[in-house]
Amino acid sequence: MDPNRTGPEEYGHGGDAPRQRPPRESLTSDFGQHAPVPARTVQLVSGDFLLTVNPVDGSEIEPCPPAERPARPGRLTEPERAEVERAAAPPVPPGPAQPSLPLLARQDEREALVRLLARGRSVRLVGPGGSGRTRLLDVVAEDCADLAPDGVVRLNGHRRSADDLLHDLFHAVFDAPLNRPDRDELLESVREIGAVVVLDDLEFGGAALDELLDATPECAFLFSATPDVADPSADSGVEDVELPGLDRAAGLDLLGHAVGRTLTDEEATWAGDLWFESEGLPLRFVQAGALLRQRDRLRAGTGAVDEFGVFEDVRPDEAPYDPADGDEVPLPSLGEAAAPAPLLASRLSASARATLRFAVALGGEVPHQAHLPALVGDTHADAALGELVSCGLVSPVGARYRLAAGVPAQLEAAGYTDDADTRIREAAQHYAWWTGHPSVTPERVCAESDAILAALTALSPLAADEPGTAVQFARTAAPAFAAGLHWSAWERALRAGAEAARTAGDVGEQAYFHHELGIHALCAGQLDRARAELEASIGLRGALSDKRGTVAGRRALALVADRSGVPLSIAPTAAEEVPEAHVEESASPPRGVPMAFPDLQPPADTGLVVSRAVPAATVPQQTKDGVGGGVKGLAKRNLVAAGAGALLVAVLGTVVTLGATSGNDPASPSENVGVNPSASQGLDDGSLDADPAAGNEGDTGKATSRPSDPGPDGTPGTADDPTPTATGSDEPSDDETRTEEPDEPTKTPSKTPSGPSKSPKPPTEPDPEPSEPEEPTDEPSTSESATETEGPTTQPGEPSTSVTASDTASSAPVETSTTATQSTDQASPDDTETMI
User: Fold this and answer.
1) Which residue has better confidence, 147 or 701?
2) DSSP code for 375
3) Residue of 227, 407, 495, 753 with fewest CB within 10 Å of its CB?
4) Three-state SS for 412?
5) Which candidate, 100, 402, 92, 135, places its Cα nearest to that of 281?
6) Are 374 and 429 in contact (CB under 8 A)?
7) Phi-psi region of 774 (alpha: psi -120 to 50; beta: other; left: phi over 0)
8) Residues of 465-491 as b/e, b for ≥16 C-beta within 10 angstroms?
9) Is 513 exposed, middle or buried (0-12, 13-18, 19+ CB in 10 A)?
10) pLDDT of 653-685, one tens digit each?
């Protein structure tokens, strides 16, 4: 037996086919097959809508069922409030704890702020960047902890609108997860909040600030803003408190606390010049203290190694300081002290300098310390944040850090933007992977929103080279912002993604972003913009035959129509208007007449064409709400369009009939008709051509039929045969059609007596006074039968004649020949009239 085979060859068990090796352990899964990562879908309530955030095919929105409606939100408990405040605070940098600097020369401003807030007044603290506004707000917030029922609420206004701040205030007090209330519910909820709201980095004023104050009448606000922010309105009731710089003594005292020792005379003189140059800004003294600590570290570097050894774990700044020992390091110049960022950065670690380059490329946003090892490429790069904080190069902004005031410009001048494009691409690739990872919660993505949006915005000009990265980045970040209820960031990410998809020429991605923008606008109540975005998305997906996406878009568009009150079949689309209707034609819908009606077919047996007047179609009248006639208006339009064909048949048939009965009038309709009407065969001559009117040599009109009534004597062709009547107009038109009731006598166009005519010659002159048309009926009918008898009432014993006309709406082709069907009853020819 061959040892390489599974069985004996005589039984046909060939062992050449490879077989997968079983796992070593019975419980070990096969690593060759990976289960697909499920998409992170989140379902939340936005006002009256139930929104399902789907990052694959696009979000779906529908009216929220009553069972899914959240209950009235309750207030957070004390432990929950503490957790919210902890999440809103900036993270503690890794490494040794940094010493807390005291608040110097701010007692007057502190007491004034607490006094105004205790009265329920709102106050605005105005000071330049680096004046210590955030530090003063922290102290005042501790003093006002017991002033309001809901305590103190800390918010940050950096790149936040008034609407964003109202939602932040709502979620800081109420327990409403995955619930974004609409405008009315939001205002009703925040009106009940009674708290001291400490809002740092306010970026708006004027009417927007008035809107925020009017929505929260039970709150006292403590704002902090820079002098370039717009002032509040005159009647807002907000008082301003100026925050000046420190005096010289306070500046020197703060510098001593920052260095951790007493200043020498040389350093005190140097600090005095710095105070004059920096106008007493506390940030400059914090950075100057970092320069002095670095100087001490450099001077004690050689002596510390000689005394303690290379492998001794001793901090250089803790080494004994002796000016006589070590190498002499001069003090920084006044220019370096006024703009210390480049000099401070040059003495930091490589990871800290790389972090500064990323921050400069991202517009001042410092990535979270958890991202630094992946961005920098160093496993210990998270310690770089501690170095930057201790040097005063970064400052806290809400739950994150930014470059301190003046630092970005100083670093740009030092050449930290040389490789900005490379840093932006690296940050975008990292954040695109991180935001799309299933383990990353939407709350964490929203906490890093500023850095993510900065990377996405900076990548847009570079998307021409790598458009796929920008599109993928926006596709992963936008759904996370939506699920985290950070909708201003959601909108910015969608617009950046739409621009990147347009640059890349990706139609499918453009459809996705337009769909999401329409959903966002619908939830925000911007119905016109929602309709435009959704129609653009539906058009693009229709071109791609994306049935699933088209259905989702049409559902959302139906909600827009329901909210706006304009049906989709009536409402004009973007850049489309309903055309004006002419007098002689009906107005069609913008997208044409629907094919709900069958094609009009000619009837099998066409009688004498007699039609009631069809009213001229007009533009649909608006209802009381200013909206078109809706479905009823559309049905009336379709009836008018269908009746137009029947009216055309009636008019042409009547023209032919009039030509048969007209005299030698040169303007007779028979001379103007451009069609070739067919004629029935005569009774006498056997030809298909009709005889001219008797007794008139100049009459060239052709009659389509001759009367078949032989008259009283019973013999056709005699003098007592009935004669045709003359029409009352030379040329019929749509406006001359009329409707007469059967029981209503009308004027006879001919002036002949009511009895039988004694002359065989028909009247050749028409009545100079045409009959006046009556008002059209409200509802056009596609099939009507008119029976009319005119003239004096017939006496008993006299024969009576009735003519029945049928007009069928299903005759679409134009009929040029008509056949008159007369009853067998005998009557005077003047008693019968053909209606048009």
Assistant:
1) 147
2) I
3) 227
4) helix
5) 135
6) no
7) beta
8) ebbebbbbbbbbbbbbbbbbbbbbbbb
9) buried
10) 654 554 554 444 444 444 444 444 444 444 444
pTM of the model: 0.65
Nearest to 282 by CA among 103, 93, 92, 99: 103
- Radius of gyration over alpha carbons of the chain, in Å? 46
Q: What is the pLDDT of residue 636?
A: 53
pLDDT at residue 708, as a whole number? 52
- Rounded Cα distance between 440 and 76, Å, is 25
CA-nearest of 626, 647, 692 to 812 is: 647
Rounded distance, CA 674 to CA 542, Å? 46
Q: Residue 625: its pLDDT value, please?
A: 42
Query: What average pLDDT score do residues 762-791 get?
Result: 42
What per-residue confidence (pLDDT) applies to 342? 95
**The pair of three-digit structure tokens given for residue 296, joined into one six-digit string:** 């001490």
Q: What is the DSSP string of 260-277?
A: TSPPPHHHHHHHHHHHHH
Per-residue CA distances from 663 to 12, 670, 757 (Å): 107, 10, 17
Beta-bridge partner residues of 61? 51
Q: What is the pLDDT of residues 328-369, one digit of tens each?
A: 788 999 889 989 999 999 999 999 999 999 999 999 999 999
Let me know how long the chain is.
Answer: 836
CA distances from 330 to 261, 527, 651 (A): 18, 67, 109
Q: DSSP state, 622?
A: P
What is the average pLDDT across 539-547?
92
- Gap between the Cα atoms of 334 and 345, Å rounded: 17
Per the DSSP assignment, residues forming a β-bridge with 199 are 155, 223
The residues with which 149 forms a beta bridge, in sequence order, are: none
- pLDDT class of 642 with cuts at 50, 70, 90: low
End-to-end CA distance of the chain: 106
Output the pLDDT for position 328.
Answer: 75
Tell me the mean pLDDT in the region 776-790.
40
Q: What percent of the chain has pLDDT over 90?
A: 50
What pLDDT is attached to residue 713?
59
Closest CA to 464 of 412, 503, 499: 503
Which of 396, 419, 337 shows the shortest CA–CA distance to 137?
Answer: 396
Separate counts of helices (H) and strands (E) for the chain: 26, 15
Residue 46 structure tokens: 């936005």
Q: Binning pLDDT at 50, 70 and 90, where does residue 491 land?
A: very high
Relative to beta strand 174-175, strand 394-397 is unpaired
- Measured CA to CA, the distance from residue 54 to residue 73 in angstroms comes to 26
742's tokens: 């059967």
Cα dihedral across residues 526, 530, 533, 535: positive or negative: negative
Compute the distance between CA of residue 182 and CA of residue 44 in angstroms, rounded to an integer.
Answer: 13
Q: Report how far apart, in Å, the C-alpha atoms of 197 and of each of 119, 145, 296, 409 are.
A: 14, 11, 43, 32
Closest to 723 in 3D by CA, of 766, 765, 756: 756
What residue type is assigned to position 94 of the chain? P
